[in-house]
Amino acid sequence: MKQFLEVGKVNNTHGIKGEMKLQLWCDDIEFLKQFNTLYLDDKGENGVALLSVKPQKDIAIIKLDGYNSIEASEQLKGKVLYCNRDDAKLKEGANYIADIIGCYVVDIDTEEEYGKVVSVENFGSCDIYDIESWGRHTLIPAIPDVIKEINVEYKVIRIKAMKGLFDEN
Length: 169
Hints:
Layout: E1 4-14, E2 19-24, H1 29-33, E3 37-39, E4 47-56, E5 59-64, H2 70-74, E6 80-84, H3 97-100, E7 104-107, E8 113-122, E9 127-133, E10 136-141, E11 147-151, E12 156-159
């Protein structure tokens, strides 16, 4: 499992005192607020203190220690920021997308294997798992009627397949 996970991407500066606009890749701003440190790399070698987080429409305005001018914060434009999974508290039953990718999808009743999760998308109403098997992709909604069990430790997701979801015809 990845230790350092993407929380978002700095897409612009905000004002002249070093604040930045962060496009959120995590669930919401409340998830982001629980961190004292964010990282500039996925290995956790370049940590920087997170001083403040404020909401603005669908992004976060953040202030990082040491970035006190527009010129300094411009250096991070386009940069992905990371969190340490050990610093996060997840809601009961929640999983990181990074842990879901790579899980095998299995029918809860028949144990038939449908393939492996290769990506997770969200177009508004729910997450959509892209399941790949032998070059064929099937999109399944991550809703309680379909997803019955997720075990990221064993890399298995058990589903109740909706009629027509995996049918060839």
